[in-house]
Amino acid sequence: MRISFIGSGRVATHLAKVLSKQHQIVQIYSRNIAHAEKLAQLVNAEAIVNDQKLVADIDLLIIAVSDQSISQVIQAVGRYLENVLIVHTSGSTNLDVLTQYHAKSGVFYPLQTFSVEHEIAWGNTPLFVEAAFTDDQDILTQLANSLSNRVYQYSSEQRLSLHLAAVFACNFSNYCYDMAKQVVDSKQVDFSLLYPLILETANKVTQNDPRAMQTGPAIRGDLNILNMHEKMLEADEREDLKKIYHMLSQGIQTGQH
């Protein structure tokens, strides 16, 4: 396939790199020419900063930009790429954000966290596809199958539920790690001592129901420990962490009934 990208951030970079192994990446468009050139060089494509220079002789255009920019982008390019299948990579943006401006539209959403430093294990990464037309959905499914063993045809509503769940499972849990590090840093304790605990917890919830795996003073109803922890945070003048600790402890207790 001949594929072009709008966007040159983390999602675009990882997708373009893996797709370039089997397909031709034609153009990389970004408002920042340096970013466009950097990614284009990696995948042997042309870097452009003017969306009107996007060539129409392609099979697929992938919009990999922030959610709030998707509507603006499709309005800008959809009208002169009428026969091109255009997709976005968002987990939370409905398909109709594209279809109201461009008929041949779809979604190609990888459920993964992307960073510059780490390569993605694409074979195990869930990929979700959706399209306005059956033929286009078949094309996206075939493309997804070339990257991953876990491909799903989910609706926009289903995909949004996954995106919300991912915020809890990834973004919020990472924030909890950050708070944990703040607690031990304040007492000059090595955060790496928690690594085995973190990894074992993550491993357990991939094999069991998370609710059944809940441990700790809150689920045991150990009020002495709960009060001790809150008083420690209060003494350290961390009212913010105390509030979060109290809220999560209550959630654990009430959520089990």
Describe what this molecule looks like in 3D:
- With 257 residues, this protein is of the alpha/beta class.
- The chain has 2 domains: 153 residues, Rossmann fold (3-Layer(aba) Sandwich), CATH 3.40.50; 96 residues, ProC-like, C-terminal domain (N-(1-d-carboxylethyl)-l-norvaline Dehydrogenase, domain 2, Orthogonal Bundle).
- 47% of the residues lie in helices and 14% in strands.
- The chain contains 10 helices and 8 strands.
- An 8-stranded mixed sheet has the order 3-2-1-4-5-6-7-8, with helices on both faces.
- Helix 5 links the parallel strand 7 and strand 8.
- The protein is elongated.
- It starts with a strand and ends with a helix.
Task: Summarize this structure briefly.
The chain has 257 residues and is of the alpha/beta class. Helix content is 47%, strand content 14%. The radius of gyration is 22 Å and the shape is elongated.
Rounded to the nearest angstrom, the distance between the terminal CA atoms is 52 Å
CATH superfamily of the largest domain: NAD(P)-binding Rossmann-like Domain
- The CATH architecture name of the largest domain reads 3-Layer(aba) Sandwich
Main beta-sheet annotation: 8 strands, mixed
How much of the sequence lies in strands comes to 5-15%
**Class of the largest domain in CATH?**
Alpha Beta
Helix fraction bin: 40-55%
- Indicate the overall shape: elongated
The domain tally reads 2
Q: Tally of extended strands?
A: 8
